[in-house]
Amino acid sequence: MNIDFGRLIINDSRPLVFILSGAGLSAESGIPTFRGKDGLWKNLYPSEIASDTALKERPEDVFEFTTSESERPPPVCQTPLILQLHNFSSRLKNYCDVVHVTQNVDNLNELAGSPSVFHLHGDFQSSLCSRCKNTFPRLGLYKKDNVCPVCGASDYSVRPNVVLFGEMPYGLDWITSYLKKACVFMSVGTSGAVYPAANFVLDTEAAIRINFDIETGKRKNARFTHEITGPCSQTLPPVLEALKEELSSRFEDQKNK
Ligand code: BJW
User: Fold this and answer.
1) Per-state percent for the chain, helix, strand, coil, to nearest 5
2) Residues 151-186: pLDDT tens digits?
3) Catalytic: 226?
């Protein structure tokens, strides 16, 4: 794949690649996206139900909704795409850091043996106590009477550790600094419909977007220097290869100076 890396500027002795992934990365493993035509939310107004206000006002509805999401069928396979990202990071490790932040709330990364992926919007494998704010492993289904193992709260206090609309995503205290340091930002399989993640692209000069179909209109973001269309099983491997070639040749040039 031929990519013009003209805007990829390396100012640092150890460059950083920042990858932001979304539901499209898990889609080919059988996990539905949120907003796609067969997506989980195709008939819903999620910001009305998956929100902090709904959790306060009608927790039973939010519990029913999130339980149906967390109980959806297991993925059809462990995704080789996640392994590709993991291998990419290992192959560059002598001269470059790779940070992968996912918006996904599934555990495909962990199943594929890539535990260092950071979950911006939390995950369904862990629980959060609304009262004491501690997080701990999830036991079974989310029910009204589950008891927090730290403070003993119940009555819908033990909830999935997923970030709802109106709540603060995780990691925002360090993410901006890493985005500014990154020589390239890569967005993989996300619609760009949710903030602040949709604005992460603003902080990095070179930015690649990989998506099944690049939406036109309000979700098209002129800040991307490359837009690559197609299922990520076909598009991600050649992009990673091209990026690896570029970074390794720049590393060699630097060494020979
Ligand atoms: C493929 C493919 C294949 C398919 N190959 N591609 C402006 C600034 C700041 C905030 C806001 C703002 N405007 C509004 C807000 C508030 C709000 C927001 O964004 N609202 C929108 C409705 C506009 N955001 C929040 O409330 C966030 N918190 C917050 O802002 O805190 C305050 C704050 C202020 C200022 C600065 C910083 C902070 C919290 C957002 C929480 C999102 N949580 C969810 C739900 C999890 C729980 C649950 O599951 O029930 O997280 S929403 C849902 O969407 C989930 C996802 O992580 C997230 C993103 O979805 P994603 O991954 O992009 O999926 P899809 O389905 O949308 O797209 C998939 C894409 O894949 C598609 O494009 C396909 O084409 C593609 N695809 N197959 C490649 N094979």
Assistant:
1) 35, 20, 45
2) 999 999 999 999 999 999 999 999 999 999 999 999
3) no
> Which residue's alpha carbon is at the smallest distance from atom 56 of ligand 1?
103
Q: 74-120 pLDDT, tens per residue?
A: 666 656 788 888 889 999 998 899 999 999 998 888 887 777 899 99
* 106 contact partners, CB below 8 Å, separation of at least 6: 26, 31, 75, 123, 124
Q: Is the CB of 121 inside a 6 Å radius of any atom of ligand 1? A: yes
Residue 217 is predicted with a pLDDT of 46
| Contact between residue 201 and residue 187 where contact means Cβ atoms under 8 Å apart | yes
Does 176 sit in the ligand 1 pocket, CB within 6 Å?
no
Asked if residue 159 lies in contact with residue 128, where contact means CB atoms within 8 angstroms, the answer is: yes
- Indicate whether residue 23 lines ligand 1 (CB < 6 A): yes
Q: Tell me the residue ranges of DSSP E strands in the chain.
A: 16-21, 97-102, 118-119, 122-129, 135-137, 158-162, 184-188, 206-211, 226-229
Give the CA-trace dihedral at 94, 96, 97, 98, to 10 degrees.
-110
Q: What is the pLDDT of residue 157?
A: 97
Of 86, 100, 119, 121, the catalytic one is: 121
Output the CA torsion 105→46→176→161 (10° steps). -40
Higher pLDDT, 128 or 95: 128
